[in-house]
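Q: Here's a chain of 507 amino acids. Please give me its 3D structure as tokens.
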Amino acid sequence: MVNAVLARLVRLQREQIAQMKALGYSSWQVGRHYLGFAFVIVVIGSILGGLAGRFMGSGLLNLYRLFFRFPTLDFTMDYSAVALALVVSTVASLIGVLSVVWMAVKLPPAEAMRPEPPTSFKPSLLERAGLTGWMSPVMRMALRNIERRPWQSAFTVAGLSLATGLMVLPGSMADSIDYLLTYQWNDSQRQDAIAFLVEPGSGEALHDLEHLPGVMFAEPIRVVQARFHHAQRERRLSITGLPKGSILNRLLDGNGRRIELPDEGLVMSQALAEKLGISVGESVQVAVLEGQRPHLQLPVRGLIEDFAGVSAFMEIDALRRAMKEGATVSGAYLIVDETKWESFMKKIKRTPRLAATIVKKDQLRAFRTTTGESIGILRRMYLTLAVIVAFGVVYNSARIALSERGRDLATLRVVGFTQREVAGVLLGELTLLLLLALPTGLLFGRGLVTWIITKVRTDTVRLPLVISDATYATAVLVVVGAAVACFALVARMLRKLDMVGVLKARD
């Protein structure tokens, strides 16, 4: 943006610069004024950006308040980050300004005092290849402008690609969470509630759970705490015993296929296998931390895909045999009649043998509330950034082009081009760059999402990589909408072209 302002200013004061050069002013003395002007703009922009950053930082802090219950959590401004932003903005702006000023001060005074000669437009590469026969003259002129300024065009494409990629990120996070909820709570875990006993009980305990009010089906589980050891790597977690062919907790692989529990051996999370450095067919040492504390050597028979925590599963009877115990249970997955839910909850609260009861719909509601608010905040932040970047990049490019070629565009009006055709020369060039930036931006957005999701995966939560067509479409519509708004503004500027000044030019 600073470059666009200075390009316009230098062009308007081109004759004054030539006069200063003729009077003996050095290039540094001539350029110092413009550099100082650019620095003032950057400082003002950095101050405004710092204030906006403080506001957005406070909003981002609210995301942590949604998930964590800190006694106090206050936002503290990192002024070193503001200083770093000022330095980066200053360096980037000065580089752009120097290029603009240098084009003016390098000209000999006598040449700079004369009107600018018409720009030389040679046929573009596509024209020389014979691929533009179907294009209109306006479109061919736009292609020539792009080829004449490759670096400026490349930076415009890069900026628009960045804006597009920024919009892909929050949408993909929402898509990933929706997939996670569907996979974790609908496809894999299909129970209404999980009841855990204070101490492992016998078959009688399972009988009591089956006869709670409203319970239509109960699937027993046996949970054993253990320490896993393999190849100098160690991990402490629980082994969950499930019945063969379990209905309420289905074990699925990365392709959504069901994995049956083997008669002997373990099925574990893909993430756990990576942590332990183990693969299917190898054996892991397991030190049980309860009961008779046996030490087991168990083969890994399969890997499942899950997105919350790490886990290991055995067939429940095989686990009981390894523990040398009878038909013990630690709890059960339950299907509950909705019409008797209130009676079920009242009975649960009055049952002392139950240590905890996890209700799936309450988990799902809380998860959707917190993540919905957090994704909403992120979407608003990234939407604002994407619109600012897209509008700024298009406006910056259009303003520089209008400053550099205002005389040429006015000449086209004089020789008979309509207002729409003249606008097509300038806006057609930006449209081509926009069309080139959109697929590049979508690819960049996918790469950005892949990198971020890979980096934020932990043992607690792992988001799947899911990007829907709606997310891609939204990113494209936002960037195109910002560009169209900018096009409308630039089209209004084109109506103010100085055609009278062109007619009076000596050349």
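Q: Can you summarize the key feature?
A: The chain is about 60% helix and 15% strand.
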